[in-house]
Amino acid sequence: MTDFSALLQPDRGQPARDIHVVHPGDFAAWLAQQPERIRTAVAANKVTGRAGDRAILPGEAATDWAMLLVCDEPLESPWRIASLGGGLPEGTYRLAGGGATGAAGLGWLLAQHRFTRYRKVEPLPPRILLTTDVAAIDETVRIAAATARVRDLVDTGASDLGPAELEAEADALATAHGATVTVTRGDALATGYPMIHAVGQAAAKDRAPRLIELDWGDAAHPRVALVGKGVCFDSGGLDIKPSSGMRLMKKDMGGAAHALALAGLVMQARLPVRLHLLIPAVENAIAGNAFRPGDVLATRKGLTVENTNTDAEGRLILGDALTRAVEGAPDLLIDFATLTGAARVALGPDLPATFVQDDTLAADLLAAAAAVRDPLWRMPLWDGYDDMLKSDVADLVNAPDGGFAGAITAALFLRRFVPATLPWAHLDTFAWRPAGRPGRPKGGEAYGLRAAWALLKARFG
User: Fold this and answer.
1) Which residue among 142, 151, 315, 416 is the active-site one?
2) Which of 34, 261, 315, 383 is 20 to 30 Å from the Cα of 337, by its Cα?
3) H/E/C letters for each residue in 288-310?
4) How far is CA 152 from the centre of its chain?
5) Judgement on whether residues 54 and 184 belong to the same structural domain of the protein
6) Do 224 and 93 fall within a single domain?
7) How far apart are CA 415 and CA 382, in angstroms?
8) Is residue 432 part of a domain?
9) Residue 450 pLDDT > 80, yes or no?
């Protein structure tokens, strides 16, 4: 992984090239104050003050130059100078006028991250950014590394990332931070976690289903449970997906990637909480022993579920994992899941559909998201749709007929496994960026990670 710590350094007055970031509305006034050589260079580069315009600005000496970027991103945006982080020549830079880089440091770092597991690429020359906000460097580096962890895990092909590999990721975190990992695998799931077992039982033996649990922290501290959907590949099961729908299903463990990354941030910062991380890890495969449409599944909670669609498997494994999390009586429960296409139809890739049954928690989470510019969108846990989960033969179905309100009914299904009094947030995230933007390449992406981390710091830091 990219050594982000080398790319964001304290500004102690060392030589560096200036980056002038000018808002389009301020461009004319800025240009009028510049010497003739600057105005000439700006004109030669046909810079007119539109957002995205840029130019090399000559200095007084032949080898001296600076960079101009016309940008309409606010000061609080992590992506304000991300377009430069991956494109400038090797060297050391600072924002013109000195001072702190603020949130822009994160985009600068992430613009220099590459996923290189499957191809040889020329290493990027290091572009170092200087900042006077020395206290923020470590935090910015940690968040960049956590984001890169999500991206790398989601970008990894399913042949190289199955349930065992997710377990190895949890083991590595535990080793680094003095946590403990407990894993329930294979047929041992049949009695304690029957829905996880049912979904994963058709996979090959080396990709056996499992519930991975990590515990860390002082038992006297508030208990925080993080749950991440870990479907390492989703064929759709016997309700098989078309090839176009299966193409990106390596990313169906994106919820687990988010939960792992967030757990890492908690432990790195030594946040005073008792952390309980849970990842139900499966492959939804097809074989003679695959679970079937019409099967009635037992659950850890004691409810029965009529399986009406084997491609609605994520909510099944999460139901057992949420039940286990609730048994620990957490003060806060957050789950991440690439759960429904309906959420993407409603909100697109950038906005995780966010379901929260506690208004105070919802307000705090949305405020945290706004503060760090990691947007979320609250969706309703609409009681009127609970009837859609009714079954003629069991306590509930996993996927109602008709397809209406798919993201909401999936969240309502999960709600059946969480007490009404427990502060709980469910993030239905895409975990994938379909088109690249500065600092955010096409591929695996962390959505809601920084928002959730800001919430945890505000509540427990």
Assistant:
1) 315
2) 383
3) CCCCCCCCEEECCCCCEEECCCC
4) 11
5) no
6) no
7) 11
8) yes
9) yes
Q: Which residue has the tokens 């590459």?
A: 114
315 as an active site residue: the answer is yes
83, amino acid identity: S
Decide if pLDDT at 124 tops 90.
no
Give yes or no: residues 91 and 203 share one domain.
Answer: no
- My answer on whether 252 and 226 are in the same domain is yes
Q: Tens digits of per-residue pLDDT, 365-395?
A: 999 999 999 999 999 999 999 999 999 999 9
Compute the distance between CA of residue 426 and CA of residue 419 in angstroms, rounded to an integer. Answer: 14
- Residues 323 and 300 sit within 8 Å (Cβ to Cβ): yes
Average pLDDT, the chain: 96
Question: How much is the pLDDT for 123?
Answer: 80
DSSP per-residue string spanning 82-140: HHHHTTSPSEEEEETT-S--TTHHHHHHHTT----TTS--PPPPPEEEEES-GGGHHHH
Domain end point (choices 98, 132, 166): 132
Last residue of a domain, one of 76, 110, 132: 132
In a domain, 137, yes or no: no
301 is a catalytic site residue: no
Among 408, 341, 420, 413, CA closest to 378? 408
Q: Which domain holds residue 395?
A: 143-460
Number of domains observed in the structure of the chain: 2
In angstroms, the CA 275 to CA 101 distance is 32
For residues 169 and 124, state if they share a domain: no
On the 0-12 / 13-18 / 19+ scale of CB atoms within 10 A, 222 is middle
Residue 456 lies in a domain: yes
Determine the average pLDDT of the residues in 418-438: 97
**In this model, does residue 313 exceed pLDDT 80?**
yes
Question: What are the tens digits of pLDDT across the range 44-86?
Answer: 999 999 999 999 999 988 889 999 999 999 989 999 999 999 8
Q: What is the CATH number of the domain that holds 303?
A: 3.40.630.10
Q: Which of 241, 373, 378, 457 is catalytic?
A: 241
Phi and psi, residue 353, nearest 5°? -70, 120
